[in-house]
Amino acid sequence: MSGNAAAKTAKIEMWWDMKDCPIPEGYDARRVRPRIERAFNKLGYTGPVSITAYGDQNQTPCHVLRGLSSTGVAVAHTKSDSTRSVMYQDMVEWRGQNPPPATMMIISDQVELANWRWEQLLEEGGAPLLVAAGGLSSAAMFYCKSCNFDCQSLKTSRNHFSSYKHGLEEAIKPPDTQLLCVTKTWARNYPATPEHATAKILVLWNVNDCPIPEGYDARVRPSIERAFKELGYSGPVSITAYANQKTNP
């Protein structure tokens, strides 16, 4: 089976930043999962889909949380200013445990990789998935990333968010300490395999943590492309540098 063929049936993991990409007003939260799965199927991807929605869930209405959970979307509570860092931590940990052909997807206005739009995606198809009366036996989990707490009940999660222990944990844990440098454990340059040798490459560069050393020319792109070619990668390279640009010369 070729690499592309294997990816079509491999599992798909999605990380959704609800702060930057909330469900548009007036749309049913139960539409999200079935519409995303339908969109993947149209592209030929039939593997199992896991979705986790990140955000300050104290700000999310109960009917939205209930609708997401009832369709198998996991909900993770984070402090508003640490949502992206917590997502990133989970993403890189998952990536280390799930190499290709497993597929990753990010729902965020910070990464312009997908051309789907919420309104278009949620309007496609028929009526939203109906939840049978009598309970949510297949409900997904609710996670609190600040306290390492999880449960399968919306009421229990709400009680936890209003607890003294939760409030104290969020007050004493600054956002930056929640991001582990798990990429340090990679520390390897993987030679290109045939199915990935010509694929496009996205480089996300944290300039604050990895600035250009003093005395070096900022024209770094040719050196990065050369390093990729030495490993056998010849696909188009896109590089985005993230930082407080007001402090950069």
Percent range for helical residues? Answer: 25-40%
The major β-sheet equals: 6 strands, mixed
Radius of gyration: 20 Å
Please report the total strand number as a whole number. Answer: 8
Sequence of strands across the biggest β-sheet: 4-1-2-3-5-6
N-to-C CA distance: 50 Å
- Put simply, the count of helices is 8
Q: What average pLDDT do the residues reach?
A: 82
Order of helices and strands: HEHEHEHEHEEHHEHE
Low-confidence stretches: 127-137
Q: Based on helices, strands and strand pairing, what is the structural class?
A: alpha/beta
Global geometry? globular
- Give the strand content: 15-25%
List keywords for this structure.
249 residues, alpha/beta, six-stranded mixed beta sheet, two-stranded parallel ribbon, 8 helices, 8 strands, globular
Describe this structure in words.
With 249 residues, the protein is α/β, with parallel strands linked by helices. It is 30% helix and 16% strand. The protein contains eight helices and eight strands; from the N terminus they run αβαβαβαβαββααβαβ. The chain has a six-stranded mixed beta sheet, with helices on both faces. The longest helix is centred in the middle third of the chain and has 15 residues. The radius of gyration is 20 Å and the shape is globular. The N and C termini lie far apart (50 Å). The relative contact order is 0.15.
